[in-house]
Amino acid sequence: MSEYQDILDSPSTPEHKGYAGFLLRFVAYIIDSLILSIPIYGTMFALFGTSMMSGDPAAMEEAGSMFFIWYLLILAIMWFYYAYMESSSNQATIGKMALGLKVTDMNGNKLNFMQASGRFFGKILSSLIVGIGYLMIAFTEKKQGLHDILAKTLVVKK
Fold it and tell me: Which pTM was predicted?
């Protein structure tokens, strides 16, 4: 048992002020989505903007075939943002920082990049099951979504 176990078992301590619930985490997600929309839509316009706006059927067909590449690029941008930020010294994305939240492992420690990556890809599973993986946050004792349970992480209030 780690020295942080008592801290993590308690809903509110000087180390953290409880687990972050569904609403706080949803607002953080909205903030992060707004931030990510800049590179996402910038990339989309760079790849497809002139083709789609030209009205040329051949150009539009070519743009459609590039959609898969665009999707992979967007996935890479999102993965890097979430994994890098949550494994940084801040332990949080900009949205989580704005709300005073941070992501830890089950012992209260900072995540490494691989753990944060696992958490990110677990979010895909949380989404694929009609968002139930996210709704679990509202009903689990430590306010964990499916992706948190799989990655063995917590989101806590600082």
Answer: 0.81
105 within 8 A of 152, measured Cβ to Cβ: yes
Structure tokens at 27: 């607002």
Segment 19-73, tens digit of pLDDT = 999 999 999 999 999 999 998 888 777 777 666 666 677 766 766 677 778 888 8
Q: Which residue has the tokens 């409880």?
A: 18
**Cα–Cα distance for residue pair 89/95, rounded to 1 Å:** 15
Token pair of 81 as six digits: 């943002």
Angle between helices 113-128 and 67-86 (to 10 degrees): 130
Three-state helix/strand/coil letters over 40-82: HHHHHHHHHHHHHHHCCHHHHHHHHHCHHHHHHHHHHHHHHHH
